[in-house]
Design goal:
Keywords: Ligase
Structural class: alpha+beta
Strand content: 25-35%
Order of helices and strands: EEEEHEHEEHEEHEEEEEHEEEE
Region (Disordered): 1-40
Catalytic activity: ATP + (deoxyribonucleotide)n-3'-hydroxyl + 5'-phospho-(deoxyribonucleotide)m = (deoxyribonucleotide)n+m + AMP + diphosphate
GO molecular function, one term: ATP binding
Family: Belongs to the ATP-dependent DNA ligase family.
Largest sheet: 6 strands, mixed
Number of domains: 2
Helix content: 10-25%
Length: 346
């Protein structure tokens, strides 16, 4: 796969050719006295990739690999680092290796947008290994072997970059990270036919690819500026119950899943593969504590145990059926409570 050649970065300020004008001087932020321009925001709502079936073509698109991990933003200031999840939770203490690496950038100030991953022995990000490094769902362990693959730069030394087009932010990000190989690394951009890149990604058991429009600013939400194309569909669903196993005593046979449609839950099928017997027993113990007489979705069937939607399942599947249930789903693990923003919406 070929990396795209870089073009020179545009200057931070685009009015350099305009005549100078005087104006009211903005007061400096007392917490950031050396930054006379844009104060660092406490949080930036993330730009999200819209799922499409085929990659777009054209010079206006940039292509990267899709990483299987936790979306994070890293806020770096003199003497202070904050690592925030997609939902805005402060997980600085959960990623000490990334925090330590981020402190080496000081006294520069910046906000990096990226994905925390843990690589397996083949050098492929493994979501299960990342979860285990954090102590599993509800665990409190610090992930000491995680790496941030940074793919965007939202703020740099007093300048809010979110209004700049992506290609210029990308060039600045490459200048900042260079060839770093520690706990913060650059997510590479590829100059290759996107269909071929997707084929290579799938052949290496990666999750897929991301396409980003080069001329767009950083806009929060799922705007279509970023697109994701998956090798296999993989999403987060709420667990609303289970069917007991007929073969293994004290275990689940399958999990009942739901997605969100507005404020309501909608049943999207069940998943009965992907977990070991020990996991099946552990899931039953956890779900038995959540039994409810007022389930979020009314389901009929023998032996179904309905629960409050307090647990989240990461599920891999091939497609949707015509009745809007998951086709060939496989359980990949439980997600953290902090990941409620990840629940699939219809």
């Amino acid at each position: 796969m070929t990396k795209r050649p870089r073009k020179p970065a545009a200057p931070l300020l685009h009015e350099q050719d305009l005549p100078l004008k005087s104006g009211r001087v903005r007061k400096r932020d007392p917490k950031q006295p050396e930054l006379p321009f844009d104060p660092m925001p406490e949080r930036v709502e993330p730009c999200l990739a819209k799922l499409v079936s085929k990659p777009p073509h054209g010079d206006e698109w940039s292509y990267e690999l899709k990483w299987d991990g936790y979306r994070l933003t890293v806020h770096i200031e003199p003497g202070r680092v904050r690592i925030l999840t997609r939902g805005g939770h402060d997980w600085t203490h959960r990623f000490p290796s990334i925090e330590e690496e981020a402190r080496r950038f000081s006294p520069s100030t910046m906000i990096l947008d990226g994905e925390a991953v843990v690589f397996n022995e083949r050098g492929i990000p493994d979501f299960g290994m990342l979860q285990n490094s954090l102590g599993g769902r509800g665990g409190k362990l610090p992930s000491r072997n995680s790496v941030l693959l940074a793919f965007d730069l939202l703020y740099l030394d007093g300048h809010d970059l979110t209004r700049m087009e992506y290609s210029d932010r990308r060039n600045l990000l490459e200048d900042v990270l260079g060839e770093k190989t520690g706990a913060i690394r650059l997510s590479e951009e590829f100059d290759e036919d996107p269909d071929e890149l997707l084929r290579h990604a799938c052949a290496h058991e990666l999750e897929g690819i991301i396409a980003k429009h080069r001329d767009r600013p950083y806009r929060s939400g799922r705007t279509g500026d970023w697109l994701k194309i998956k090798c296999v569909q993989r999403d987060t669903f709420a667990i609303i119950g289970y069917e007991p196993s007929k073969a293994v005593p004290g275990a689940i046979g399958s999990l009942l899943l739901a997605a969100l449609k507005g404020p309501d839950y909608v049943y999207v099928g069940s998943v009965g593969t992907g977990f070991s017997q020990d996991q099946a027993r552990s899931l039953k113990k956890q779900l038995d504590k959540l039994k409810t007489s007022v389930p979020p979705v009314r389901l009929s069937g023998k032996n179904l145990v309905l629960t409050a939607p307090s647990l989240l399942a990461e599920v891999e599947y091939r497609a949707w059926t015509h009745t809007r249930t998951l086709r060939h789903p496989s359980f990949k693990g439980l997600r953290e409570v902090a990941d409620w923003v990840e629940v699939y919406s219809l």
